[in-house]
Design a protein that fits this description.
Layout lengths: L10 E13 L6 E14 L3 E11 L10 E3 L5 E3 L2 E7 L6 E7 L5 E6 L2 E5 L2 E5 L13 E4 L9 E4 L2 E5 L12 E5 L2 E4 L1 E2 L2
């Protein structure tokens, strides 16, 4: 990549994915959704900035906690780093993200800066909020070496519980919802 202006990223990647679960059937109908939107920027000083927004269907006014129920040990990858959503006592179940180096050593634990209801979704934002997510660089992670050809930003398939947002349904429990994997390549910023 061409050298960026001082303070600007050399390369960036962004993308996302999600999943849904449905059961038809009048008052027993079920509709759940999970969406992941993430972006990463590599800076030539050996820093990767990463931000993620995790959206979990949640009926307005519902205070239920949701849980990570299945994963392969990680829920995402940023080049040679991996991450896992973490459970905690934040009142929402999913409270933050742990980051790991290629040897499996935890290098950072970061709580979600905001967890808020937006329509029928509970929105967990690592840095910033729903309004400024895409313009907020995210957490700083040590990263070296960067490989433009092989490094990718990925969601690793996982499952978690989500709330039923089907209108007029009396089926109020949380439901297991799977999120499919996805992969995005980094591109030069200039």
């Amino acid at each position: 990549c061409p050298a960026p202006a001082p303070g600007n990223p050399e390369a960036a990647a962004g993308g996302g994915g999600g999943g849904a679960f449905s059961i038809s059937g009048g008052s027993g109908r079920v509709d759940t959704q999970i969406r992941v939107i993430h972006h990463a920027e590599y800076y030539p000083v050996g820093i990767m900035r990463f931000n993620v927004r995790l959206e979990i269907s949640n009926p307005p006014g519902e205070t239920r906690s949701y849980a990570l129920i299945s994963h392969s040990g990680r829920t995402g990858r940023i080049g040679h780093l991996t991450y896992l959503y973490t459970m905690g006592a934040c009142g929402a179940g999913i409270c933050g993200v742990d980051f790991f180096d290629s040897g499996g050593n935890r290098i950072l634990s970061a709580p979600f800066q905001t967890i808020e209801q937006s329509g029928s979704m509970r929105v967990h934002t690592l840095v910033g909020n729903d309004g400024n997510f895409l313009t907020t660089p995210g957490v700083a992670l040590p990263y070296s070496p960067f490989d433009l050809t092989n490094d990718k930003l990925e969601i690793i398939s996982f499952g978690m519980t989500a709330g039923n947002i089907a209108p007029f349904s009396t089926n109020n429990g949380p439901f297991n919802t799977s999120v499919s994997g996805s992969s995005t390549i980094f591109r030069c910023s200039n």
